[in-house]
Design brief:
There is one protein chain. By secondary structure, the protein is α/β, with parallel strands linked by helices. It has one domain: Rossmann fold. It contains seven helices and seven strands. The protein has a seven-stranded parallel β-sheet with strand order 3-2-1-4-5-6-7, sandwiched between helices. Helix 4 links the parallel strand 4 and strand 5. Helix 1 crosses helix 7, helix 3 packs parallel to helix 4 and helix 4 runs parallel beside helix 5. The protein is globular and about 50 Å long.
């Protein structure tokens, strides 16, 4: 049997890096997408040094043409993916009164529109393999959080997109992970006073289960995860 192939956005650090490395350790080839060339190269090198297979493409998921180019390159180097993990995200902590239209749009572009664009680009491949899509949402996609209005709105959209796509595409599994606070650089930068409940590996372990072992009947589920 050929080695499964996954595409992962936001793969250069934090939760994305943890998922990429765990997938590779479990014999899944990983297409790595992120904006940071140095970090992305480091993750690819780490995976390959441990005997895994990865191919990194510097990609801004708010740029549809960049996503399309990345899809072609990944398929040329790794093959047709059967797993997609939409992990890329961005949270800007501001009071509601201080959220500008630019901040609002930027947050939606990365968290929601980026997820839509990547999914739409890779969906035919995932369907051809009867594969799985995993969206990394947030508990902020189900609840409200002060000073994170734009992020909450975007992640609520990701949860809704997950449920709708699961109903529309019966030939694949579509799920979302909705974590509480995870110890990442972005969380420490944005909310330094917070004591995180979990480590990135906690989310990676669930992502691996959803990608490989979870029953297909849980499609449409948006799973809350707390430490």
């Amino acid at each position: 049997m050929s080695q499964p192939i996954a595409v992962l956005t936001g793969a250069s650090q934090g939760i994305g890096e943890a998922i990429a490395k765990l997938f590779a350790k479990n014999n899944i080839s990983v297409g790595l997408l992120a904006r940071s060339k140095d970090n992305l190269t480091r993750v690819q090198h780490d995976i390959e040094s441990q005997g895994g297979q990865a191919h990194a493409v510097v990609t801004d998921i708010t740029d549809l043409k960049a996503i399309q180019r990345a899809a072609v390159e990944i398929k040329q180097h790794l093959g047709i993916p059967s797993i997609l993990v939409n992990n890329a995200g961005k949270a800007i902590r501001k009071s509601f009164a201080d959220i500008t239209t630019d901040i609002w749009q930027q947050t939606l572009d990365v968290n929601l529109t980026g997820t839509f664009q990547v999914t739409q680009c890779f969906l035919p491949d995932i369907q051809s393999q009867h594969g799985r899509i995993i969206n990394i949402a947030s508990i902020a996609g189900k609840e409200g959080t002060a000073h994170l209005s734009s992020y909450c709105a975007a992640k609520h959209g990701v949860v809704g997109l997950t449920k709708a796509l699961a109903k529309e595409c019966k030939d694949i599994s579509v799920t979302a992970i909705c974590p509480g606070s995870v110890d990442t650089a972005s969380l420490r930068d944005g909310m330094p006073e917070l004591e995180p409940d979990m480590q990135p590996d906690d989310i990676a372990n669930l992502a691996l289960y959803l990608a490989t072992k979870a029953p297909a009947v849980i499609t449409g589920s948006c799973i809350d995860v707390f430490g």
